[in-house]
User: Which sequence fits this backbone?
């Protein structure tokens, strides 16, 4: 049964910003496979951070850590999208075509080998002990003087030293297969020892300074493993609380949130929705602001009357322009649908209190499990690539297959899927063969659409207009996003909106990371 | 989008009973495989009937026809259940254990060969021409005299002749694979020629007298085929209208409707629900009646406070006693969830008007398609039998697999399924093997539970307490019924009830059959 868990929202709020997200820039990905784990540069963040957050789900373990740097990484690691870094800039939602949503090309879930000389361990943690030393020094020395003991580095830069409270640094994101949790442990071990080396402190000192903020089910299952292997403090945080905390954080990062606008790019429909002529940038927000809870842009766009008739959902829904939210504002209340191995559906109230109201066991693990058995794909991303080349009508039973025509009286077109996999039955004990591409396309669509349908019904039940989809199932895959988005658009008759996040899989881990900032602060100020 | 189609309810209503269902008796099955297609004896029905109804869905074609007889078939074809045949009898819901719900043992969908000497063609149609002749004779002869031209036969009995308006006869039910529609056509052809022979009329005369009432998608797809092969009139009826008509009919047949009562037989739970002590027969309806819309028994039982805490749905939910509705009363408003190859969800208002409000493509065709590829089962029933011997925890990822324990804060037990098929992923490109039994159990549960969840949300949205599940997916299979029923019980906290029908797959065909009774009547009386 779902349980109401109320907690006070702490981040981001209008009054106390623990993580200063002003001017945050999403760094461009190094390769398509790292699309969802590109770094976020926070030019204004000052608080010292020396902990590592890890969210261990049923299939993937997601890691977040922070490395200091006064400057964003140089080109080619420039900002991937236009960040709203200056407050004087007139900011409007940015619209791009869906093809700009990169589909991962290299399908393997990366398991970086931290021992293979660098890899993605691109920065070092700042041990708190150095901050404490620095704090003591600051009382004796001029704040402008250099502190030779502080080595916050991005390895791409030469080392430098700055006063304790210089701002700037990057959030780093990594993921590993839970089934291969040892790779995750080894990565963190390498990060810790590297940080000790870079900062010139002993490994014992570094370990005392570092803390693991663990969430997700694996935080419990692997608690002892992390403690014993890493010899650092491990703190466990509630999974749902971290998800919500993470959602609140990410919705404050410019260009993190995106959605399909009402601008129709192409339609498989012969009904041309009225909304076609609506310019995407119709709604202009004058002042970018990280803290003023003005009317959110998606909400104001929803005032536009929806198209009079929407085609039923299908694997090839009408295509709409993608809009990035460059001017983020608080997005509560909302529904959060987190699609990992399974699916959790969480209602978030305006004050940040929340309840897990629903869920389904038909999630990413189901799709990947089925397609593991039914296709030669060896990874989830390979399966996504297969689905791109598929035609579901070879395996799905369409209305036309049953009726020989449309079911006009109910407005069900002949191309509508009546029964997923309805053509794949044995006849007289013999089984025909089907293309892996068609199987992948059918099941990816069916799973996504089912989640969209259940999400819609919950949003309807609780009167929520904004539905955020998170979790590693999404993987920035255009077909998945379009299906989820269109399901919400269709069932809600355009009154509700599906919203997505570039770092969709990292809500829990960033939430756990943030929770420690809070607790550190309350500890240090008590 | 769903379209509202309003039509005036014609059957059964309190004032005009076209099909007299008083005293209706469900005949016992001849074998487990015919569980859902056992005949219904109508001792009081008088209207002449010479048409055949067929509902052709994506996977199955369902046939209904009527054969006259003044007496119910003799033992061993006696009534399967106690019918409420006398109005003076005090009637209470009958409670039986779930094991009394027979699970089909012979797994093949029967495709009777009508040419193999008898088979299930157990009776003959009465050609209308004979009724018309009889009608003319009746004006000249005493109504008590025997008419030698009228031969309504059950072949098990010797021939007899009776006046036109003697009451009694049986509804007969047959199903065929749509993929093998020729077998269905051949069966009807045999029925027509046999009826001509038995009644001593020419085949041409018989064909002029017979009509096919066709519904379902195949009514359109196979319209020409039926007309050309059978050389009889074929009339097409709307699928949804027939479903609702059929539901209204079946809910008037004693012992047709059944549901799980609040009487707990055994529970996997350590929480013992309060409702355990509630006697099933607590709510006694004094007067059986087919026409007085009194408070329905299921409704009155719903007044009982629900158990305080229900375990989450699982493939092994707590077991409740099965109650047959021996004293049927009109059951509107309600939600009808028809699970065929796909799923239609229809809201039915108190006045009989209805709207297809939702549906899902994840239905019987999906399950059977997946299991065709994933198991050696050659039929749907064989797959159901496999699932009985399965353990889903070998393929599903449970909360305990992720957490190593319960997720106590949210009340999610370690045995709860977090991700269906979540353990079935390839690792390093190699695929482990899984037992067909475990695969069947997992997917049957997941599909059933998903339908139950979507059904519940629609019932909630429209404020409906009664949810009827129809369609050939159910097949009287105890695990399917228990899953659907428990999903409704759990999600609605005991405030809504799942109801089932013995002839679950024949709603559309019986609806089409009844619609012709109406039109015949209006034609003959105009």
Assistant:
């Amino acid at each position: 049964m779902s349980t109401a868990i109320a907690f006070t929202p702490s981040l981001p709020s209008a009054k106390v910003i623990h993580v200063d997200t002003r001017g945050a820039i999403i760094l461009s990905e190094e390769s398509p496979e790292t699309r969802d784990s590109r770094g976020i540069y926070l030019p204004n963040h000052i608080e010292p951070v020396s902990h590592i957050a890890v969210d261990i789900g049923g299939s993937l373990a997601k890691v977040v850590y922070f490395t200091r740097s006064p400057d964003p990484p140089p080109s080619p690691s420039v900002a991937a999208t236009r960040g709203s870094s200056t407050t004087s800039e007139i900011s409007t939602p940015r619209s791009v075509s869906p093809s700009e949503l990169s589909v991962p090309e290299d399908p393997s879930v990366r398991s970086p080998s931290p021992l293979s000389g660098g890899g993605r361990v691109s920065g070092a943690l700042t041990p708190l002990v150095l901050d404490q030393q620095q704090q003591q020094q600051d009382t004796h020395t001029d704040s402008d003087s250099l502190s030779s003991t502080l080595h916050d580095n991005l390895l791409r830069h030469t080392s430098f030293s700055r006063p304790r409270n210089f701002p700037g640094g990057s959030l780093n994101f990594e993921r590993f297969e839970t089934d291969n949790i040892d790779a995750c442990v080894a990565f963190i071990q390498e990060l810790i020892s590297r940080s000790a080396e870079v900062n010139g402190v002993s490994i014992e000192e570094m370990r005392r300074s570092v803390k693991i903020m663990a969430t997700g089910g694996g935080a419990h299952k692997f608690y002892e493993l992390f403690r014993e292997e890493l010899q650092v403090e491990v703190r466990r945080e509630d999974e749902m609380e971290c998800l919500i905390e993470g959602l609140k954080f990410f919705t404050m990062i410019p260009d993190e949130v995106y959605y399909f606008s009402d601008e129709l790019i192409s339609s498989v429909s012969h009904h041309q929705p009225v909304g076609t002529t609506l310019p995407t940038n119709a709604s202009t927000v004058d002042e970018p602001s990280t803290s003023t809870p003005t009317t959110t842009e998606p909400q104001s766009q929803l005032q536009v009357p929806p198209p009079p008739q929407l085609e039923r959902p299908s694997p090839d829904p009408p295509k709409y322009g993608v809009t990035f939210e460059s001017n983020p504002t608080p997005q509560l209340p909302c529904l959060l649908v987190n699609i990992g191995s399974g699916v959790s559906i969480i209602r978030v109230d305006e004050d940040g209190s929340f309840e897990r109201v629903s869920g389904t066991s038909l999630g990413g693990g189901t799709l990947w499990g089925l397609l593991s058995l039914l296709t030669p794909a060896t990874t989830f991303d390979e399966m996504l690539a297969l689905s791109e080349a598929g035609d579901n009508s070879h395996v799905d039973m369409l209305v036309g297959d049953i009726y020989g025509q449309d079911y006009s009286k109910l407005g069900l077109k002949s191309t509508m899927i009546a029964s997923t996999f309805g053509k794949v039955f044995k006849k007289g004990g013999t089984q025909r063969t089907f293309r892996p591409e068609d199987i992948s396309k059918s099941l990816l669509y069916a799973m996504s659409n089912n989640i969209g349908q259940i999400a819609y019904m919950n949003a309807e039940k609780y009167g929520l207009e904004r539905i955020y989809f998170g979790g590693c199932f999404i993987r920035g895959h255009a077909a998945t996003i379009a299906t989820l988005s269109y399901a919400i658009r269709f069932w809600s008759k355009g009154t509700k909106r599906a919203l997505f996040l570039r770092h969709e899989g990292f809500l829990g881990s960033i939430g756990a990371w943030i929770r420690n900032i809070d607790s550190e602060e309350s500890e240090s100020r008590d």
Q: What stands out?
A: Chain B touches chain A through 78 residues (CB under 8 Å). Chain B is about 30% helix and 15% strand. The domain at 257-366+438-501 of chain B is CATH 3.30.420.40 (Nucleotidyltransferase; domain 5). Chain B has two domains: 18-78+121-250+507-525, 257-366+438-501.
